[in-house]
Amino acid sequence: MGIRVGILGYGNMGKGVECAIRQNPDLELTAVFTRRNPAELKILTEGVKVCSVAEAPGMKGEIDVMILCGGSATDLPVQTPEMAKYFNVVDSFDTHARIPEHFDAVDQSARESGHVGIISVGWDPGMFSLNRLYANVILPEGKDYTFWGKGVSQGHSDAIRRIAGVKDARQYTIPVSSALEAVRSGANPELSTRQKHTRECYVVAEPGADLKRIEEEIVHMPNYFADYDTTVHFISEEELLREHGGIPHGGFVIRSGKTGWNTENSHIIEYSLKLDSNPEFTSSVLVAYARAAYRLNQEGHKGCKSVLDIAPAYLSAKDGAELRRSLL
Amino acid sequence: MGIRVGILGYGNMGKGVECAIRQNPDLELTAVFTRRNPAELKILTEGVKVCSVAEAPGMKGEIDVMILCGGSATDLPVQTPEMAKYFNVVDSFDTHARIPEHFDAVDQSARESGHVGIISVGWDPGMFSLNRLYANVILPEGKDYTFWGKGVSQGHSDAIRRIAGVKDARQYTIPVSSALEAVRSGANPELSTRQKHTRECYVVAEPGADLKRIEEEIVHMPNYFADYDTTVHFISEEELLREHGGIPHGGFVIRSGKTGWNTENSHIIEYSLKLDSNPEFTSSVLVAYARAAYRLNQEGHKGCKSVLDIAPAYLSAKDGAELRRSLL
Question: What pTM does this model have?
């Protein structure tokens, strides 16, 4: 029998977790939990039940790890500590500023129940955080840079959709190549918001809408677009669906630092992702950490952890000797 | 008082460790140990003693972690298990095929004495191994690629120097750009040795030597050059010292993998290093893991570990709450 996994929330990420579990033979999907009517939810995996979220507590003992696939704004702050009463839990909480309080809430719940919770799993926070940490400890004298994209920003796409006369929209965040090259050269440039990323918007307007006004509203929107060079393309709904239906993303974490008695030598550490599907990649990271949560709990650990607290070997189904032989 | 570190072996790497310790205020250099005559060894740090390696066992209790800076061929297989009797130890053992037996030897010694040993620390093995592991657990269906360079290969440079008529030489290993681009495209190419790297040699010949013969001997040398496209440049000794005095290196670890119910989405994870000084970068990794060795031992851990077994947070002088706030 494999590690028994539950999925709470069946949007893009929940479906991604379902797919990722199929790629990991030591894990098995036990049930999908939803706040919708379970009878109306069709999942991909044959023979796996769909349950109401209210049934979850009753399934304590049948599920080893619950993977939470809700949103960070309102779902996870409530769901992760609640589910940690019954299961080991993994989530992708990504509101950076609120991580400390979320950590404390999950920690308290998981300690009381004797479970392991791993929060903020994904790529940023997640793999990008790990790479920032590794690069910082190796090169204490240096400078960090993070670039995002090219990829779809859900938040920025939503912001455009809220403008009157906009039927649909897709916004791409794009790192500026010359800025990336300057960082890679070791020049340690100071880069403004505008110098690091551009924003490209594909907008479907309602018939008869004032395109000039929509474009002005987009490019001057505070916080979202005003500080960036923004390009707006009006396209048809067909083109949007055909050419911009995916959810790609990615980015770069770069640290540029110095070593030597007189800091005479420069080094560049770069980690990058190019992802066809942002939610499926995040899901794949969640599933690897679900394995770690289960194994740590089996060894007697409890409480909340982040990716920074997990020894990499716990993520793999292979044992230590095999990892040393094949990957070290 | 900081974590008290000893250095055994004072070549390029030992000197690099000395420099790295100065960049980490929570560590202090206690002594440098040498097999040479200590009176003849001048180190960079004021007020730190140079001792004979025979004095090391007597300094048990004065040093928290010994960083071993010898070679993998003959030094480390003996020194690391020996020093683990008295200290926590960290080494950069890099003979991939012999890692399992080295691990066992250090493990036995460290368990008996109650110390922690961390072996094969550096960038390959080391940071590259970590990145292979993380990428493999996230994308179980995929393919790994490692490219090295552009950088100086000490082994290949030495091989050229052994040819009759060669006074000095420097060999650069260079990844083939088109191969890198093919991998990054997600095409999952099968690449031969020749397709992945080229070799560029800068050779100072003895006066009157037969340059044609030297070049032939280089490009046809089995194992070292015969399987590669190799370019040989004859240059003056002055030019060699002026233009090729550094020890740069680096490389790329890339995993290309698929996710989705029908593995319809492609992802590329890439980690790369561009290093002015190979030994100083390796040394900087060693020093971060020295901190981890000490902290793990303080918590009661003992035995041998590799980078795969160390939770990233142990590498940082910052505590968990600060790391979550600043890096996650």
Answer: 0.96
